[in-house]
Structures are given as C-alpha cells and as structure tokens.
Design goal:
With about 500 residues, this protein is of the alpha/beta class. It contains 18 helices and six strands. A hairpin with a 7-residue loop joins strand 2 and strand 3. The longest helix is centred in the C-terminal third of the chain and has 34 residues.
Length: about 500
C-alpha cells in the first residue's frame, strides 16, 4: 500500500540539518582528515610559489584533499567541485573553517594541483601516514628482560611482498595503419593552418589527396581480418601521403623562414608526427614489427607498449610500476613509462623496508621473476628467506613441512595481487584518464594513498564498532575517535586482522 501524504514545501533556508550545526566526529571524512599529515608538508609545498608575486595559492590541504576526494569517490574534476560545494564534510576535509555555499575553486584547478604535487611528495605523505597508524595501532606489551634481549639479537622481522603491474592509459588499441592515418590527418590540419596564415592569398594550397587517402585507409580498416599483404600495402600508401604532406610543410616553412603560423600544440604535434614517420618507415623498409621507444599515441607520445605476458592482454599501454606491501599497506616504489625488469628493484625495496622499519624483513614473498641467483645470494647474506623453490632440479620427494611453507608463501604473496585488483576495479588504476606524463604519475600515486587510507578507515571504524558492542559500560560520549587511539583505549590491531 502506498499512501501519499501532503507535505508542505519547505524553503531551503528552513531545512533542518540532522547534526544540528555540528559535524560528527565519527564521519569518515573527519577521521581521514585527522590521519593525513597535511600540515607537515605545507612548507615543502609552499616552496613552489613566490612569497611576493602572484595571487595567493590554495593550501596544500585543499590541493591534496581535492585529489583524494576525486579518487575516493571515483568522479570527474567537475563533479568533484560540485560535491565539495554541496557537502560540508568535504569542505572540512579540504581545510575550510565554515560552510560556504559556493565552489572554493574552479574545476580546472585540479590540473594544477596534479602538476604541483608530484609523485615523490605523495609517496612521502603516504609513508608518514602509514607509519603513524602502525605506531598507534601496536599495543604496548611488557616484555621480560630475557625476551627483550632475544628480540634484539633477532634482527630480521616482518614480511615484505613485492610485485609489478601496469596502469593502462586511456588510449585506443594502436595499430600501424591507425597511427599513420591519425598522423596524416594531423599533417592536413597543419597545412590548413599554415595556408591560412600566409600573407599572399593568391598562392594555392598544396594538394593533399585527403579524400583518396581516407578511402584507401577505410578499404583495409573496415575488413575484419585483412591479410598481411593488404595491411602492408595500406601502410605504404599512408607513408607516401605523410611524406608528401611533410614535404609541403617544409617547403612553406623554408619560404617563410619561421613557424609563425603554428601554435604550440601544432608544433609539438609536428615533431611527434616526424618521429612516427621515421619509425614506421624504418619498420616497413626492414620488415620489422617493433622498434625501440615506439610511439603508440600521437596525443600521448610518452606511452610505451609494456609486454606483461598475461593471458587476457599480453601487451598493455601505460606506465609500469613496482610496488611493495607491508601489513595490508601498499607503497609505490618505482614508476616508469619504459618497460623494465622488476627483479632489479628487489634490493632497493628491501633497503627501503629497513630504513622504514629499522630492520630487514624475515622473509620476502615475490614472483618467479625476482628469484634470480643474484637476488637469492644477496638475501642469503642478510638472513632473508626468499619465497619459492630453490634453483636447480626439484627433489623427488618433498616433506609436508616444505609443501605447507610453499603454500603459505603463495597465500601471503596473493595479498599484493588483491591490492592491484582493488586499485583497478574499485579505483582508477585500470584506466588513467590524465593526458600528461607527470599528472598521470601523480594520479597513480594518489590511488595508492587512497587505498592505504581505506585500510586505516576500516580499522578505526571496525574498532569503534567492536568497542561499542563489547564495552558498552564505558562512556565514550566525551571521547573522540582519535583520543581513543591516543589514550590506548582501542587497538585496531586487536580487532582487525
């Protein structure tokens, strides 16, 4: 049954807020704002600006908070500004002292935020935040003098998990014919711009045969499975069209003596097209399918093909990154647009683990590619056990303890695969929408920061729920979430495993 009740129309200014004008301390954005160490990096962020010139810049908390909100909610830049405008909790999260019924900045400012906050700064914030949480969640335990002395001699503690993955960019699947067709169309637009900027209007525009070139491209592109001979012939035709157009461009520039008819974007596009033509011409003449530093996107020439050897997609196009996992927290160790062997990063990751925790790990759980002779010998000298079977011929019979240890090692190593899956399914790691190289790197680092922030939030909220369930006799009304942790009344490590 549905009963329609006539409700009076309430004006917006008379709408009653549920929290009676005060923010709830158990709100997720309030909790996250207390755990992100934004004031500690305000000075480093302020060094990017002049102290006497220019308009006042946005604070570091506002810049980083806006990027975290965008990644946490999985929305666009415009929607991020609208959400901040409508939600008082989000305004508190970015550092505003009172609610404002207006946007604190324009949507285009998020591009500048990603430019100013580089990947190194985000990684620093991530490590400081995780270290603060790990120190607060470890319950102090009184040890006997003999146990403390035994622990001091045992220098290796903890487990380190390392792996690599690729963050694909938002580009179409590249083929030689498709890239050459895009390059030809760009040269035609550049010729049109140069012709419009001519002083002598009586000169004729060079012929580009664009309709015929488009027809030659579609003749092969529309076929479902064209033969290799047809593809090669179509590539040759597109190369000839591009060569003719580049020749006309060089002739116009030589007669004029300068590039006053091109803007910065067209000039950059001309340089990329020249390199694409050189690479494709070399592969066609030498009958090759690959070349070093191959360009697969005209709009994002920094992207390279990354061969991963996966069953679904053997080649991905984006940034390759190496990451490590410690106690459910994941850290971005290296990011590169060129393909690299991740086994070379194992020593650096272990040394970073020692600098971060003060000791070497007891065991390292990695994939087969990491288990080289050099890495095994290096770990053995430092008393670190590396997962996986030893090199050489496998023994005929394995003990139950060895099989169980191998199974446990694989279970532990799967946690970082789950982190990659979380970043690609829940967050934006599966498709990087940014177009520039440095902004894409910042977006990837923000994803790792938000994933660790989700772990912290889950532990705190889970601890509060269990405390309220099991210890209702304790009065928590006058205690905030952070005071419970600081006074050691709740320990997330005791409840969340």
């Amino acid at each position: 049954m549905y009963r329609k009740d006539e409700q009076p129309k309430t004006p917006a200014e008379e709408f009653k807020l549920p929290f009676e004008g005060k923010l709830s301390e158990e709100n997720r954005w309030v909790i996250m704002a207390q755990w992100i160490p934004m004031p500690e990096f305000e000075v480093e962020y302020a060094e990017l600006f002049s102290s006497v010139m220019g308009a006042p810049a946005k604070t570091f908390r506002m810049a980083l908070g806006a990027l975290i909100i965008k990644e946490k909610l999985g929305i666009s830049d415009r929607e991020t500004v609208e959400q901040i405008k409508e939600n008082p909790y989000l305004q508190y999260f970015i550092g505003l002292s009172e609610y404002r019924n207006e946007a604190p900045f324009d949507a285009s400012m998020l591009v500048h935020f990603r430019t100013r906050i580089n990947v190194n700064l985000v990684n620093k914030v991530n490590r400081v935040m995780v270290k603060r949480m790990r120190e607060a969640s470890n319950e102090p335990v009184t040890e006997n003098p003999s146990e403390a002395e035994e622990g001091s001699h045992r220098k290796n503690r903890g487990k380190l998990i390392a792996d690599a993955t690729c963050a694909p960019a938002d580009i179409t699947y590249p083929t030689d014919l498709k890239i050459l067709n895009k390059a030809r169309e760009q040269t035609e637009k550049i010729l049109d711009s140069l012709h419009r900027s001519r002083q002598d209007k009586s000169e004729k525009k060079p012929r580009t045969y664009r309709k015929k070139a488009r027809k030659d491209y579609l003749e092969v592109a529309k076929q479902r499975r064209p033969s290799r001979q047809k593809r090669r012939k179509a590539v040759k035709k597109q190369l000839q069209y591009i060569k003719r157009n580049l020749g006309h461009i060089d002739q116009i520039i030589a007669n004029r003596g300068r590039l006053d008819g091109l803007n910065n974007r067209e000039y950059k596009s001309l340089l990329v097209i020249s390199e694409v033509y050189r690479q494709q011409q070399w592969m066609y003449e030498n009958n090759k399918q690959s070349i070093s530093d191959r360009i697969v996107s005209l709009s994002q020439p920094h992207i390279r093909p990354i061969v991963r050897g996966k069953a679904g997609t053997s080649v991905e196009f984006g940034a390759k990154l190496s990451a490590s996992c410690l106690d459910e927290y994941v850290f971005l160790d290296r990011i590169s647009w060129d393909n690299f062997n991740e086994s070379c990063d194992l020593k650096t990751q272990i040394e970073a683990f020692k600098e971060y925790t003060g000791h070497y790990p007891e065991s390292v759980h990695v994939d087969k590619i990491y288990r080289t002779r050099e890495n095994r010998a290096w770990c053995k000298d430092r008393g670190i056990r590396i997962s996986g079977p030893p090199l050489g011929r496998p023994p005929a019979h394995l003990s139950k303890a060895t099989k169980k240890q191998a199974l446990d090692d694989e279970k532990i190593r799967n946690s970082i695969e789950g982190k990659f899956g979380q970043g690609k399914r829940r967050f934006s790691l599966n498709r990087i929408m940014n177009k520039l190289a440095h902004t894409s790197e910042t977006a990837i680092a923000i994803t790792f920061l938000v994933m660790n922030l989700s772990v912290i939030l889950r532990q705190i909220l889970g601890s509060i729920f269990l405390c309220n369930y099991f210890f209702r006799v304790i009065d928590y009304d006058n205690l905030s979430v952070n005071s419970l942790l600081q006074k050691k009344l709740i320990y997330p490590s005791n409840f969340i495993r």
